[in-house]
Recover the amino acids of this structure.
C-alpha cells in the first residue's frame, strides 16, 4: 500500500497576501466613482476609468488614468505584475 503524503498547511489570507508583499502587484480597473469612494482625498473627474496598482495584500500603490501608466508605475517600483481573477 502506498504511503500518503500529508496535505500542505493552509495559509491564512494574511499569510498568503504577505508572501508577495513588496514584490508582487496587480492592476484593477475601476470607475471614477469607485476610486473616489476608496480615495476620498483624491480629486477624480466623473465618468472616467481609473487603473489602480495594488500590492499583494491589496494596499493601493498608485492611481492612473491608463493601463499603460499603471504598468509603468509597477515596473518603476520593480514590482512583478500578476493576473488576479
Amino acid at each position: 500500500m502506498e504511503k500518503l503524503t500529508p496535505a500542505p498547511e493552509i495559509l491564512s489570507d494574511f499569510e498568503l497576501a504577505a508572501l508577495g508583499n513588496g514584490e508582487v502587484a496587480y492592476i484593477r480597473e475601476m470607475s471614477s466613482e469607485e476610486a473616489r469612494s476608496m480615495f476620498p482625498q483624491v480629486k477624480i473627474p466623473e465618468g472616467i476609468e481609473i487603473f489602480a496598482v495594488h500590492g499583494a495584500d491589496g494596499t493601493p500603490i498608485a492611481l492612473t488614468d491608463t493601463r499603460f501608466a499603471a504598468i509603468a508605475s509597477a515596473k518603476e517600483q520593480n514590482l512583478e505584475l500578476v493576473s488576479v481573477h
Q: What stands out?
A: The chain has one domain: 22-81. The chain has a mean pLDDT of 83.
